[in-house]
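All the exercises in this workshop are built on plain-text protein records. A record pairs a protein's sequence with a compact description of its fold. The structure tokens are whole numbers drawn from a learned vocabulary of backbone shapes. Once this layout is familiar, the rest of the handout is easier to follow. An example says more than a description, so a record of this kind follows.
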Amino acid sequence: MTDLTALRALPADRRRQAGKDLRDSAPRSGNAALPAMKGRGDPIDLLVTTSTQRIQSLLPVRWARMVASPFTFLRGAATVMARDLGELPVSGIRVQASGDCHLMNFGIYASPEGRPVFDLNDFDETLSAPFEWDVKRLAASLVLAAQDSGHSPSAAKDMARAAVTAYRLRMAELADLDPLTAWSSRVDIAAMAQGITDEAAREKEMARLAEAAATPSGGDDFPRLANRDGGQARIRDVPPLIYHFDEETDRQGQAALRARTLFTRYRDTLPEERRFLVDRYQLADVAFKVVGVGSVGTFCAIGLFIDPDGHPLFLQVKEAMASVLAPYAGPSPYVNQGQRVVVGQRTLQTVSDGFLGWAADDAGRHFYIRQLKDRRLASAGTLMESDRLDFYATLCGATLARAHARSGDAALIAGYLGTSETFDDAVADFAAGYAEISAADHALLKQAVADGRLVVADLPAKGKGKGKKGD
């Protein structure tokens, strides 16, 4: 592992050279290597084994989402890919990694000022880890998503390469900036959209961004997520994905109490000035929420908070387990896994949620709390249309470079990546090969369902496809 602390004392040109020197022990072409299939083990066994701490009654929802396509399988199989990546050689350069860096964990969300921001938006698996792991998972997800959208294998591989190239070029730009400028930099999605070559697709994207910028970010979710029943604010039930804790779903009466207790305890982890804001609201209702693909089965609840004048605030409490990267990258320094997620998000995002905090329940389980965002801004589904997926690939690659540069050494990484396309081609080769592995793993999941080994739930149509964001 490279001694990053010692390197920080060196000027940028020396750090670039140190990165270049790493190619001797970790050639860039070696990033094309795939995990050995002999002795790899059954990926379905690994998924089942690592699901023992999840809510077992929700696992059929998880399997139903993962079985939809090889792409959705990859989204839910972060633990499988982490094991595979852990067996491959690395450069030794570590960053605060996303840990689950597939393309649906990027998107547009509203900043506190209401401006649309494109960034990473899921951090359940974040941990200090080799920078290549995030790049490779993103590239593999692009290959599978492109194929799922009807692109040829060669075109899908080109999209993965485009994302890696954007990562390399953006990292080189960041390496030339002073630390303060690099830290506060953000990806200008509007400027990048202007680079879309297809005129119709470019105009469509610019119109969508203009609409997002005009969308209010405050209580806009209220009519969709809640209503007033006899004057009482209440979260809408949308079974089987959002529902209240009742005698049938919570016979012990503990789930609702747990959620309310966690919202109370979480306040103490907020910055003191943020507590003044939270204290203006009172908790009016809580409901259970099934989330994402990879997170299905973890405890997650929505809290509807109301101020004295009826203005709403939606907070979400979500269970945090150890990162899937931990067995291969090392454990988190934080005792509470919720704190691990919060610190990772604050590190990786340019503009983080001001309501981020964490808590633990009496059973020693860990959780983090965040504001429930307006999904119309957060969803990446519209960017995944076939005529814009190449633009989205470039956008994700550049965004990931910015995120990694905040905790990693941009000059060191840029020195390792260099100015040629050697790294880009190697990761594109890896992505194409790993997409085939994921497709084979997906076939094993389908067989396990067909054999009755795994039971799948009957989901609403909107819960099955690639447009469901955030794991």
The mean pLDDT is 87. The two ends are 30 Å apart (CA to CA). The chain has two domains: 4-217+378-463, 222-375. The first strand starts at residue 94 and ends at 97.
